[in-house]
Amino acid sequence: MKDARNEKEETAGGNAAGVNRTEGSAGRAVWKAGAITGPVPPALVTCAENGRVNVITVAWTGILCSKPPITYISVRPERFSHGIIDRTGEFVINFPNDAIARQTDLCGMLSGRKVDKIEKCGFHLLPGSEVSVPVIAECPLSVECRVIERKDLGSHTLFMAEIVATQADERYVDEKGKLVLRKAGMLAYLHGEYFATGRKCGRFGFSVAKKGKK
Ligand SMILES: Cc1cc2nc3c(=O)[nH]c(=O)nc-3n(C[C@H](O)[C@H](O)[C@H](O)COP(=O)(O)O)c2cc1C
Question: Which of 38, 53, 94, 197 could form a disulfide with 142 if both were Cys (CB 3.0 to 4.6 A apart)?
Fold first, then answer.
């Protein structure tokens, strides 16, 4: 549990409790260095070695480049998953929705060293199309990754990876073949709390589009 607490301090914004707080201009709270950010996806990252599949919850993830498509995850060396990813060079980032919020949290509380989290969560696995790591069927979206670079940054190792394939639940692909996750209830993680996305307040470019078009 100690590891999980460490992560909470980072991802929940330990600074918000007053640590490192300094003087700011009127109406602004200011903190010195600290790992605080806006909403991030609490991703379920699968990895596999010698036929054994593990899953770790990771909040430190995102896109680094569109062409070629490059993503990253940052993982602490003490995680069971760290060694597996380091040795195999492959992982899948599975993006969960609100239906599996509890399992998403659980995979960040327990270690694969002691528990088979796939079994405990009741997840169903499907084969990766380009990597030998399976995807989680319960997740609406899964991104298959191959590591291209790793860097020890301090508390975490950055695994930079090429996205070699993407899989989605057919229910979220419309008749034109477009991925529509609007109603999937995708999870966002914000300072220690999970939220389901759903309230649309615009779309890409709507600020310059014809009036009224959202
Ligand atoms: C919401 C959430 C986000 C997390 N983000 C990260 C992260 O970005 N990097 C990391 O190393 N651990 C992160 N953790 C902690 C790991 O998921 C946790 O230590 C897990 O038990 C490690 O599993 P493993 O030992 O099977 O690899 C997070 C936990 C939660 C609940």
Answer: 94
